[in-house]
Amino acid sequence: MSVNIDSPEGHVIRKMIPFSTLPTNIFKVICGKITVENVRSGTFLFKRGDTSSDLIYLLKGEISLEVAPLNIEVIKAGSESALFAIAHQLPRKVDAVAKGNIYFLRLNTIFLNPPDAKELQKKEHQEIKAAKKADSIDCIATLLMIPIIRALPPVNLRQISEELEEIRVEKDEIIIEQGAFGDYFYLIKSGECLVTHKNSEHAQAIKIAKLEVWSTFGEIALISGEPRAETVIALSDMCLLRLHKDKFLKLVKDPSLTFIDFIELELWQDKGAVLLDVRPPDEYDKLHLPNAINVPLFTLRMQLQTLDTKPLYIIICKDGKSSESAAFVMKTYSLKVKIIRDGLNYVPKNILLKAQQLLKKSGTIHTKKPLIEKSQHISSKIDVPVNKNGDNLIHENKKLRLNIAELKVKYATVEKENKEWEEKYKILFKQTEDFRLK
Q1: Are residues 242 and 262 in the same domain?
Q2: What integer pLDDT is reported at residue 146 of this predicted model?
Q3: Quick check: is 2 in a domain?
Q4: How far is CA 94 from the centre of its chain?
């Protein structure tokens, strides 16, 4: 129990060292930290070698200080020796044994010798650092469960773990609302949610997908810069990790996506790549490239499970923005994806004109079964007849087309590298000039 400073025990303690020198307000606080105890004869208050930081003061009775089998000293309450803490040096040099029933007080030294403020700050900083490290390890472990993030460089993973914010949402709470501004990318640490879409304000919501642990969402609006296209509602209490848009674009999106120029498309198609057009059906119906399969972006999540995981998918849209969103979603499902840079805007006009003429001639319309079944493997390779005249010419023509495509790719690569070296040369030249002037 604590001690009242106005009690008989309080008056006795006030005469002890160092309590007699303390200001009244501090002494009052310390009395609130004191515990008064009584023990029977023969009880050890402490033993030789103990390192407990408690101070022991004798209030009533006698204490024997011993080093077996010798009796070193007997301290009596009220004596000059009893004004001081009993054998307080650590580790203890003697045993302290009660001679008869005794009454004593116990006080931890921390209340008389508080640690230096700098030491406390240092300790607190170390504890916070350790806690952050533990949280970081747990966060990275969560990130590694997501394919697209697992493929990022280690330095990105570390930065992402530092920037992620953990939030909790309750069942039926709206996490993202269609039409709102996109500001965060989300990862599900626990719980599940429902993704829905409305074609118009008063239309009935369409269920797009049910997302569970390790799923991600919210990336489409961040990549496209357009309002949220979907509503996400918690189906249970959830724990989410979220990353702000700026950090997401820099640390996750940019290093995750791979682009190709349109001149490379034919080469990849000859190797078995599948061309996906992610524009809305009405735009696809008006104009699309030959062999392009329409998978509108807003229905992509609904149909991902039906996609064959083996081929490489080349994504195209009007300007490349929707393609980036589609590619990111597909990569979270471990699909192999590349994007045609700048979309149809980058396709030469003569090729678009031929595609349009072909559509008018064939009367092709939007397919009702846009996705590739897992048993299929669509390719743009030319079928070479076996038993007809001109077999060799067709075969040679195909080889030439392939060679031309490869040369175009090499040319584009060399041109790009050449521009990069020119920029580096300009920077080095400027640095040299600045150094010379100094």
Answers
A1: no
A2: 78
A3: no
A4: 56
